[in-house]
């Protein structure tokens, strides 16, 4: 009992009926607590209990002079507990009902029943705790009129609690009056249940019609998972169809959804972009917040139930409420007066706000007041409290209420559609539809969130500016709109401080100028790459300088890159930022790498000069090429790239814009630049590295200042490095001082880069251009038309050169001024490796090319005197110059600047190959492959063309140096190096071979090639052809023949030199004319002896004019051309004897004897019954004889080659014969056979030569070596047929000519 009394006291609420009230509780029984009045005054005591078993009773006496005949008790469940879900609505209901009850009891003296008198209105509330089960228990109590004392039952809030109450009340055929329940199912089939809230199906009727009239075409609905709310939105599809609107989607969400559940839905609906969104929520605050988070608003938004609720005003910002619309049964703007109270809608609202603790007047209050008013109006109109009478009356009447007119449908529910209300721009609810009750027009479309923020929060809105739907401020020029939404404002245009276009154009112009200068210098260097001034400056170094300057200059392009902010106004990444960020880091990369490449090339060059100078002083016998100083370039480039890479990884430059001045929170002035947090430290590291390197270079320049700058270029390099040093040391502090001024900083940058690179180009290339032009202008030119034979000047071709010295004495420009001659002496003094102290004469001689000393002639003496300052005495012996010659040779090797001339052992590549263009290198690799050399139809004339006139050097190197020559040339040409085991070859350079030094081999072949005279037939081309033909025959027969290494080396070497120094006149001519050769070598094999002698003199570097009686030790002679230098003495003599023997066997006067001898050998090997001999191959003593015969056959093989090779050789051999005939005619000698131009028939001579010499010889060879029959004899047969045909054609043409002459003579005779 005590607990129940405590609950009653806690639930006691005073409802003021008169000016005085008192709360009193007294225990009656165990099931109710009743309060009663003990005062004799007119005050009425009213209390409410929270207990389900508790009743609240109001006892009326008289009030304000009113006399009551009795009382009518209105009982109702509602939520009185603050923890209840619907406590707010319970407060609204109690406050509203008390307001109306006070008016009825105090101002109207109660309910007026004409036949019975005036009755006081008593209200009783029962706490339903927002629970269905509790509501049902209350309903069961209330329907027992005898126990409850309740005359009329009224429903509380909401439909979910009203429906179970209606079910219980209807079961006892009692009447129930509901204020807020809108679900039609509550009233269906319950004739005594009434509700003033229109049907949920009608909730959106007015709103949808209003939006359709405004132009809306599409709609989306969202409903909470409650039956009444589903009913509200469930009617939309039919309504939309009737208005020709499209329902895009209908969405159901869980009961009481929160913002996290609604935000994804809001984003999804935003993609559908409907014109109108209709929501059916009890609480629309989470949905409004979800829309705000999704940053999207439809053109129209309608929400049921929550319009005007306190939770909406508390949960949504004031600026977000305007434009929200929704069906509402009531709002203060409705033009209507209540028939009972006489209050207008506005007057009711004012009274409610005055008498209650609420800040707003929700439509729920009007619904509760209307329900009570209609019930009282019906009692007074019928003068009855009978429920059946009241029901019949209410179903047929229209009531004037605070809501407006109310009429009930047959189910007892208000059948008038609720009007559409909307918050206006000031946040005040206005009725906007239907027009007859509208207090304001519909606001459509509703603004976006950005536009709302712009209008209400931003500086733009505060200043009365106009805002766009995007939330931007509409500004008058010259001001511009900045920001959006809450930050929207009108500002003066931002000063971005971009670099002026004229200044950027100036930077680009300087960049182009520097690049053009680099290109011009590069083209000039390429064109004059063989000029002495370029060769002396190392083209590789010049190339690096050009590349470095060009790369560094390119950095100027990226210095002018600029953009606005990293992020655009819409928050998106600026698409240009990535490009500008890359440009920011491209500047240090390009400038740094370019600077290091150019500078390191200069540093390497001056370091090389220093080392050469040091080697000259210390007598160091070492070649100092660019490879010796290449590590400088590599080291500097590695350090530079390491610093730049670390910078790039740790803290790269990025484009940033610094705001200098703001207005309304937005910048009005800013400046952009590349920045990096750790960038200054990396930049400082680069500057220190550059300055230290420059300082070191200046020190080297000082150390080499005494060396002539034409070749060491120490002065030019010193000036260049000094200027670079000055530019860098001045530019850095200036750049730091002007860094805040973008324009000046940019100007300093481009000027620094331009001056540095342009000056380097000017100082390094302009002097060379001037000197080259002067040297060419002053040079004395000696052409081939002059009397000095150019082939006698040196064993190398000047235009291809072996070293710097040869480049200075070009074939087509061999004259120099005194100044130029002095420069030549200076560069030689730098490069010459002196082994001992030389006399002044010997020192002069050391500068003279070897062949000028070896070949004594007027021309050579002239050259030595004019260009070397050396006067030679014809009586002086060459023994005086032996040391000089060796020193000169050392100078040539030492002076070589290019890696082309380095000795790479067995993989040495002759310089002639390096000097070929790439396409010719490719052709040479193909033609000189071992497989190609094996081919009998090898075209020596094609090789002559692709090797630029060096057939013997290339063929000799390819065959005698095989297979290493093929591997070396593949590597030098940039091809994949083949495996030696796949190539074959003789392997003479092997230690297992004869250890033939390949470089010496090339040098020897080169001088032999030069020693071949320029004859039509007996020349270096013929020697190369014979060597290749012999090789081909050997490869055909090697499996049968099986010669020794010594025999192979001897026979191949003999082929290369077998006609060296051939004068183009045969042995018969030499003998008849008593030439010097015939007197030296007598009458037998004159020229063959000459060839053999000259070959070994050249190999052993023996003076041709020295005393021939003295001994020559092969171990002590110069090894310059001695390809047999690694042979033992006995081996050397054996090879020499074989070479001589082979050369002598090329004497054509012994041809038939030799052929018969070989025929006898073939017949002996093919005797019947001697199959063993044939199967086992030639005997050891026969192998050398066969090799000699192979050489002889190779010597006459030109007639056995495929077309057109054989015809080209025929022309050449006949021309040489004719030249001999011409000379014989001049000398008054009998003209030799086949040498008379006027009488010789070439087809006849060739046919005879092939028929009697070539074909029989190859037939014999075919008998000895069957492989030849298949490869060669068919070609011989075809060529013989060719000459037979040509012979017949010649005879026919001759007969025809004779006939024509006879006819002409006859006609002439007749005419006479």
Automatic annotation (TrEMBL):
Renumbered to this chain, the signal peptide range is: 1-25
Instruction: Determine if DNA damage is one of this entry's keywords.
Output: no
State where the protein is found.
Answer: Membrane
Query: What cofactors are annotated for this protein?
Result: a divalent metal cation
Q: Where does Zn(2+) 1 bind?
A: 1022, 1058-1059, 1195
UniProt entry tagged with the keyword Zinc? no
Query: By what name is this protein known?
Result: Phosphodiesterase
Species assigned in the record: Seminavis robusta
């Amino acid at each position: 009992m005590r607990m129940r009394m405590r609950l009653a006291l806690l639930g006691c609420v005073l409802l003021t009926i008169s000016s005085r009230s008192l709360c009193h509780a007294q225990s009656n029984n165990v099931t109710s607590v009743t309060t009663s009045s003990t005062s004799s005054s007119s005050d009425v005591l009213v209390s409410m209990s929270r207990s389900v078993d508790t009743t609240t009773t109001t006892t009326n006496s008289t009030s304000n002079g009113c006399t009551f005949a009795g009382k009518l008790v209105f009982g109702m469940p509602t939520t009185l507990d603050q923890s209840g879900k619907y406590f707010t609505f319970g407060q609204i209901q109690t406050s509203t009902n008390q307001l109306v009850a006070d008016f009825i009891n105090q101002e109207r003296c109660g309910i007026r029943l004409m036949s019975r008198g005036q009755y006081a209105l008593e209200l009783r509330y029962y706490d339903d705790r927002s629970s269905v089960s509790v509501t049902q228990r209350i309903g069961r109590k209330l329907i027992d009129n005898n126990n409850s004392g309740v005359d009329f039952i009224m429903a509380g809030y909401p439909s979910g609690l009203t429906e179970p109450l209606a079910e219980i009340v209807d079961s006892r055929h009692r009447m129930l009056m509901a204020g807020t329940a809108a679900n039609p199912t509550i009233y269906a089939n319950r004739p005594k249940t009434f509700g003033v809230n229109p049907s949920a199906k009608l909730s959106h009727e007015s709103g949808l019609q209003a939006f359709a009239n405004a132009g809306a075409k599409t709609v989306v609905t969202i409903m909470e998972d409650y039956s009444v709310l589903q009913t509200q939105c469930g009617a939309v599809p039919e309504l939309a169809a009737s208005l020709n609107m499209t329902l895009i989607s209908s969405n159901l969400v869980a009961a009481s959804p929160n913002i996290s559940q609604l935000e994804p839905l809001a984003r999804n609906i935003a993609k559908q972009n409907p014109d109108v969104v209709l929501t059916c929520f009890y609480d629309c605050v989470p949905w409004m917040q979800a829309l705000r988070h999704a940053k999207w608003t439809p053109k129209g938004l309608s929400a049921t139930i929550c319009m005007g609720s306190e939770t909406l005003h508390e949960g949504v910002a004031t600026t977000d409420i305007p434009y929200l619309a929704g069906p509402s049964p009531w709002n203060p703007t409705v033009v209507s007066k209540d028939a009972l109270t006489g209050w207008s809608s506005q007057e009711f609202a004012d009274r409610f706000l005055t008498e209650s603790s609420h800040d707003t007047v929700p439509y729920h209050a009007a619904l509760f007041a209307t329900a009570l008013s209609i019930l009282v109006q019906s009692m007074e109109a019928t003068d009855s409290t009978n429920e059946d009478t009241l029901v019949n009356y209410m179903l047929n009447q229209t009531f004037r209420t605070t809501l407006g007119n109310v009429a009930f449908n047959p189910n007892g529910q208000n059948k008038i559609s609720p009007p559409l209300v909307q918050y206006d721009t000031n946040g005040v609810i206005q009725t906007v539809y239907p027009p007859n009750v509208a207090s304001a027009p519909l606001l459509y479309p509703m603004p976006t969130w950005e536009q709302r923020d712009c209008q209400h929060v931003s500086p733009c809105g505060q200043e009365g500016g106009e805002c766009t739907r995007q939330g931007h401020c509409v500004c008058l020029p010259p001001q511009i709109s900045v920001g959006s939404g809450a930050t929207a404002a009108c500002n003066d245009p931002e000063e971005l401080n971009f670099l002026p276009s004229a200044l950027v154009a100036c930077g680009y112009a300087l960049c182009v100028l520097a690049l053009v200068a680099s290109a011009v210098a590069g083209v000039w260097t390429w064109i004059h790459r063989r000029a002495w001034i370029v060769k002396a400056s190392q083209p590789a170094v010049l190339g690096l300088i050009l590349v470095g300057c060009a790369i560094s200059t390119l950095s100027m392009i990226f210095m002018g890159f600029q953009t606005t902010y990293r992020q655009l106004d819409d928050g998106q990444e600026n698409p240009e930022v990535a490009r500008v960020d890359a440009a920011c880091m491209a500047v240090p990369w390009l400038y740094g790498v370019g600077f290091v490449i150019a500078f390191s090339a200069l540093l390497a060059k001056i370091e090389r000069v220093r080392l050469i100078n040091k080697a000259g002083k210390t007598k160091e016998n070492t070649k100092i090429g660019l490879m010796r100083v290449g590590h400088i370039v590599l080291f500097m480039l590695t350090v530079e790239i390491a610093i730049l890479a670390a910078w790039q990884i740790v803290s790269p430059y990025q484009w940033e814009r610094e705001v200098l001045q703001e207005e309304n929170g937005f910048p009005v002035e800013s400046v952009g630049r590349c920045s990096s947090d750790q960038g200054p430290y990396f930049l400082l590291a680069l500057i220190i590295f550059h300055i230290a390197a420059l300082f070191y270079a200046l020190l080297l320049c000082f150390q080499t200042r005494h060396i002539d700058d034409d070749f060491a270029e120490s002065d030019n390099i010193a000036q260049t490095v000094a200027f670079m040093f000055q530019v860098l040391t001045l530019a850095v502090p200036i750049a730091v001082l002007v860094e805040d001024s973008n324009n000046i900083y940019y100007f300093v940058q481009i000027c620094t880069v331009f001056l540095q690179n342009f000056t380097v180009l000017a100082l390094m290339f302009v002097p060379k251009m001037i000197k080259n032009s002067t040297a060419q202008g002053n040079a004395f030119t000696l052409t081939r038309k002059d009397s000095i034979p150019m082939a006698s000047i040196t064993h190398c071709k000047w235009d291809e050169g072996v070293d710097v010295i040869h480049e200075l004495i070009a074939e087509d420009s061999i004259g120099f001024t005194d100044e130029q001659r002095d420069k030549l002496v200076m560069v030689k003094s730098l490069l010459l490796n002196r082994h001992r102290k030389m006399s002044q004469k010997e020192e002069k001689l050391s500068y003279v090319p070897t062949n000028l000393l070896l070949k004594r002639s007027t021309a050579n003496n002239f050259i030595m005197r004019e260009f070397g300052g050396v006067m030679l005495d014809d009586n002086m012996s060459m023994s005086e110059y032996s040391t000089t010659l060796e020193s000169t040779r050392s100078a040539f090797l030492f002076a070589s600047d290019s890696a082309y001339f380095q000795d790479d052992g067995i993989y040495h590549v002759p310089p002639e190959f390096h000097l070929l263009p790439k396409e010719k290198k490719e052709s040479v690799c193909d033609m000189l492959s071992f497989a190609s050399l094996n081919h009998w139809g090898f075209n020596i004339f094609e090789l002559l063309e692709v090797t630029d006139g060096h057939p013997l050097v290339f063929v000799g190197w390819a065959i005698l140096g095989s297979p290493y020559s093929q591997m070396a040339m593949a590597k030098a040409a940039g091809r994949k190096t083949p495996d030696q085991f796949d190539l074959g070859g003789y392997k003479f350079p092997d230690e297992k071979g004869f250890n033939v030094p390949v470089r010496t081999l090339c040098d020897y072949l080169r001088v032999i090639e030069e020693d071949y005279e320029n004859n039509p037939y007996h020349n270096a081309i013929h020697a190369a052809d014979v060597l290749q033909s012999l090789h081909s025959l050997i490869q055909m027969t090697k499996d049968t023949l099986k010669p020794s290494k010594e025999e192979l080396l001897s026979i191949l070497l003999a082929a290369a030199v077998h006609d060296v120094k051939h004068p183009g006149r045969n042995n018969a001519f030499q003998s008849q004319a008593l030439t010097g050769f015939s007197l030296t070598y007598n009458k037998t094999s004159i020229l063959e002896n000459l060839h053999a002698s000259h070959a070994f003199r050249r190999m052993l570097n023996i003076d041709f004019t020295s005393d021939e009686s003295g001994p020559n030790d092969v171990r002590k002679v110069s090894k310059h051309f001695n390809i047999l230098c690694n042979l033992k003495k006995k081996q050397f003599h054996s090879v020499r004897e074989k070479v001589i023997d082979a050369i002598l066997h090329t004497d054509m006067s012994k041809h038939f004897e030799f052929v018969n001898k070989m025929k006898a050998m073939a017949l002996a090997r093919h005797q019947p019954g001697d199959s063993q001999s044939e199967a086992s191959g030639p005997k050891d003593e026969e192998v050398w004889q066969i090799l000699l015969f192979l050489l002889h056959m190779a010597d006459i093989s030109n007639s056995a080659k495929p077309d057109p090779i054989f015809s080209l050789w025929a022309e050449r051999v006949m021309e040489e014969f004719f030249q001999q005939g011409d000379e014989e005619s001049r000398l008054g000698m009998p003209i030799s056979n086949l040498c008379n131009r006027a009488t010789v028939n070439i087809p006849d001579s060739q046919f005879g030569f092939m028929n009697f010499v070539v074909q029989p010889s190859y037939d014999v060879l075919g008998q000895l070596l069957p492989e030849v029959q298949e490869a060669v004899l068919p070609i011989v047969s075809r060529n013989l047929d060719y000459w037979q045909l040509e012979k017949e054609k010649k005879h026919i043409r001759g007969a025809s000519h004779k006939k024509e002459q006879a006819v002409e003579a006859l006609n002439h005779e007749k005419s006479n």
